[in-house]
Design goal:
By secondary structure, the chain is α+β, with helices and mostly antiparallel strands. It has 14 helices and 12 strands.
Length: 407
């Protein structure tokens, strides 16, 4: 029998039992979708990770009470002493001219008001100093930066992020205007250029004001200040980081045998931690997909055994008129592989669509995971061969006389 005829008969059998074939394809599609969707999303995340997590300026690192990312033992970090304003100021003095030190403390969920216009209650008010703009890679589109004298005297001035400007000053000049936050007035002295959204959030939805002003309004108790340290060059970064850790230990009054009760992290450490999280998610998706595909393979075998039983007499007729054992085996094996590959193609298509939809919502890059799509279809083909081989062998091994007697 010609190979083309074998495949024609195989597909004819599949289309004759549409519901059964569709359910089998669905089972395989779910398994492939679970891994392709996750891998598509993860590839998009990895493609955007260096720019999306590049929140700190060049040659810089941050010192904080809490780690940047943590999923365990949070109480240990929460019970640490706060980094007080006095500690932060003392640290800045100890670092001197060896590095630029930026202090910041924030308060989310704020509403910015100008006359009859107001933002949603989702603006971040940040108390900081003159080094914030360079520490976090902002550009100034108009006006001036916060000055050291603004911080020293606690002046009621502010700089606006691009999202806030667009909301309350859509058609007029913002410079010099008086805005209101939590009953406090601030004069706009500078505008920050937009940075764009990343990972579903926006760094432009903020207002910055001198940290001294922030602490005077909201108090110093139960507040921990974050510090960004920027070295003069990449070559000096390691030495500056060592000096900063020593200065911070001195400020915190730690003994030589005490562990650090603060965290130090940089762009590189953030990217490394995020990649570890993605690796765990990918491994979980592979485990779930493997279980689903194994169950789907058992389903393929079950469906093919039922098909052999239903078509026993047909097999007997074909063998009695000269069909070879190899032809029967290839036909049933082709049916099993076709079911698996169709399920694989559907799973890849839905997985890529779903993964890219999630990536779009998270403002990460859109991509097609060619490697994983190829692996997925190869695995599906293997499932069709492995789980379809026994039913195909059983069909090919039927005795034609006994098969003709079957009712």
């Amino acid at each position: 029998m010609l190979l083309a005829e074998i495949f024609r008969l195989a597909f004819s059998s599949l289309t004759a039992n549409k519901l059964r074939s569709s359910l089998t394809v669905l089972g395989i599609s779910v398994g492939v979708f679970s891994v392709i969707g996750v891998m598509t999303f993860i590839n998009g995340m990895r493609g955007s990770i260096e720019t999306g997590l590049n929140v700190l300026g060049a040659n810089s690192f941050q010192i904080n009470k809490f780690p940047a990312i943590s999923f365990s033992d949070w109480n240990r970090f929460r019970n640490r002493r706060d980094v007080t304003a006095a500690m932060a100021s003392r640290f800045k003095e100890l670092m001197g001219d060896s590095a630029k030190v930026n202090l910041q403390i924030g308060r989310g969920g704020q509403t910015v008001i100008f006359r009859d216009r107001r933002t949603n209650a989702n603006v971040r008010l940040l108390g900081t100093d003159e080094n914030y703009v360079t520490a976090f890679n902002f550009d100034i589109s108009a006006g001036r930066n916060l000055g050291a004298d603004d911080v020293e005297y606690g002046r009621p001035v502010c700089m606006l992020g691009a999202d806030v400007i667009q909301k309350i000053f859509p058609d007029e000049e913002a410079m010099g205007k008086l805005i209101r936050i939590n009953g406090q007035n601030y004069t706009v002295v500078g505008l920050l250029a937009p940075k764009g959204s990343s990972f579903g959030g926006s760094p432009d939805n903020l207002v910055i004001t001198p940290i001294s002003r922030f602490l005077a309004i909201y108090g110093r108790s139960f507040r921990s200040i974050s510090m960004n340290v920027q070295a003069p060059s990449q070559a000096e970064l390691a030495a500056v980081q060592e000096k900063a850790i020593g200065a911070m230990r001195l400020v915190r009054g730690l003994h030589p045998e005490d562990l650090n009760d603060f965290e130090v992290f940089s762009n590189e450490s953030l990217i490394e931690m995020f990649n570890k999280i993605l690796d765990v998610v990918a491994a979980g998706a592979l485990v779930i997909s493997s279980i689903a595909l194994l169950a789907s393979g058992v389903g393929v075998m079950n469906i093919m055994l039922v098909s052999v039983t239903e078509r026993t007499k047909e097999i007997g007729i074909r063998k009695s008129i000269g069909a070879k054992k190899r032809s029967i085996l290839l036909q049933f094996l082709a049916e099993a592989v076709a079911l698996s590959l169709i399920g694989g193609v559907v799973g890849v298509a839905v997985g890529v669509g779903g993964g890219n939809a999630a990536a779009y919502l998270m403002n990460t890059s859109i991509n097609f995971p060619w490697l994983w799509a190829g692996i997925g279809l190869t695995v599906c083909g293997g499932i069709g061969v492995i789980f379809g081989l026994y039913p195909a062998w059983k069909a090919a091994s039927l005795d034609p006389i006994e098969a003709l007697r079957y009712e």
